[in-house]
């Protein structure tokens, strides 16, 4: 027994050969990579590491909510770049370098022809390959107000038969025939697919500001399809969460629809402006209510959290 122990000690004290050292280093490196990859799938660890979520705020002539949208994503912990449409068209900047694409509100190109129509044409006929690649990579897109108008007129939303197809829904002139600038109550429709509104149960209160926000599907078949598929995300409601007419529904949208998503839930368009409710004192009654939660933050935080966890 003593001889066996002594022989083992001799082996342990013997210098390792180069081949043995190489084998051990490869084995340890492989274990390290496996452990590190496992940790990267943990959301809290990715936040601890400061995993950067990069957001492109796409703007053009007439965009006027780009700074507010950038600030919203920065509050959520993202790194934001303001990217002009011409920078992408001329390849000076690539959407491939970003995880989230945001098309903010405004009046792109003066809303000539129709709201969002010209920028929609630029996306469809100039950047469709880049954006389709962006979507295939499971990245996120949000269009707010004018951005929503762009997404539907480019054929990106609702996206049931693919992207950049013939337009199947639109956002038309308000029934009031005037610009509507008011705060509205919104309901996050139960069972919808949208990851941007995931976990939101309370009624939302946000401002709208548009002249062309009436959601209209091409026909009853399209409406039934997006409803059955969980693509209706937000609806206009009253203080009790019930569907109601004007002014609760500020534009006359069919079925009170305020926002929809694509079948994956990763592309979201809405008429209300969450970036205009990022601080409690943005609320019109902040000085009268004991506690006001800046609900606009939820949407941006959900997006950043999703990327940190999944991309």
Description:
The chain is globular. The strands form two sheets. The protein has a nine-stranded mixed β-sheet with strand order 2-1-3-4-11-10-9-6-7. Helices cover 35% and strands 19% of the residues. The chain has two domains: 15-51; 54-310, Rossmann fold (3-Layer(aba) Sandwich), CATH 3.40.50.880. By secondary structure, it is an alpha/beta fold.
Number of strands: 11
C-alpha Rg, in Å?
A: 25 Å
Shape: globular
The CATH topology of the largest domain is: Rossmann fold
The count of helical stretches stands at 10
Approximate strand percentage? 15-25%
Quickly list its features:
19% strand, 311 residues, Rossmann fold, nine-stranded mixed β-sheet
Topology:
Layout: H1 2-13, H2 18-40, H3 43-49, E1 54-59, H4 66-75, E2 79-84, H5 85-89, E3 100-103, H6 117-126, H7 128-136, E4 140-144, H8 146-153, E5 169-172, E6 180-188, E7 204-210, E8 214-217, H9 220-228, E9 232-237, E10 257-261, E11 267-270, H10 296-310
Parallel strand pairs: 1-2, 1-3, 3-4, 4-11
Antiparallel strand pairs: 5-8, 6-7, 6-9, 9-10, 10-11
């Amino acid at each position: 027994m003593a001889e066996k122990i002594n022989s083992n000690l001799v082996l342990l004290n013997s210098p390792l050969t180069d081949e043995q050292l190489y084998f051990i280093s490869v084995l340890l490196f492989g274990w390290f990579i496996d452990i590190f990859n496992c940790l990267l799938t943990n959301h809290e660890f990715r936040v601890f590491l400061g995993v950067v979520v990069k957001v492109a705020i796409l703007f053009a002539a007439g965009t006027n909510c780009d700074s507010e949208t950038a600030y919203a994503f920065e509050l959520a912990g993202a790194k934001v770049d303001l990217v002009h449409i011409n920078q992408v068209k001329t390849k000076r900047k690539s959407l491939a370098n970003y995880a989230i694409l945001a098309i903010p509100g405004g009046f792109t190109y003066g809303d000539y022809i129709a709201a969002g129509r010209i920028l929609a044409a630029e996306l469809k006929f100039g950047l469709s390959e880049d954006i389709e690649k962006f979507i295939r990579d499971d990245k996120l897109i949000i269009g707010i107000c004018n951005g929503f108008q762009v997404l539907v007129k480019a054929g990106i939303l609702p996206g049931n038969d693919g992207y950049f197809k013939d337009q199947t829904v639109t956002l038309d002139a308000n029934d009031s025939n005037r610009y509507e600038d008011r705060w509205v109550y919104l309901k996050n429709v139960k069972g919808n697919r949208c990851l941007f509104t995931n976990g939101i149960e309370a009624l939302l209160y946000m401002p709208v500001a548009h002249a062309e926000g009436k959601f209209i599907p091409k026909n009853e078949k399209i409406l039934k399809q997006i409803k059955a598929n969980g693509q209706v995300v937000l609806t206009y409601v009253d203080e009790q969460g019930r569907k109601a007419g004007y002014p609760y529904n500020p534009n006359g949208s069919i079925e009170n629809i305020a926002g929809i998503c694509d079948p994956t839930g990763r592309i979201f368009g809405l008429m209300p402006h969450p970036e205009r409710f990022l601080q409690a004192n943005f609320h019109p009654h902040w000085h009268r209510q004991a506690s006001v939660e800046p609900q606009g933050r939820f949407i941006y935080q959900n997006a950043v959290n999703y990327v940190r966890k999944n991309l």
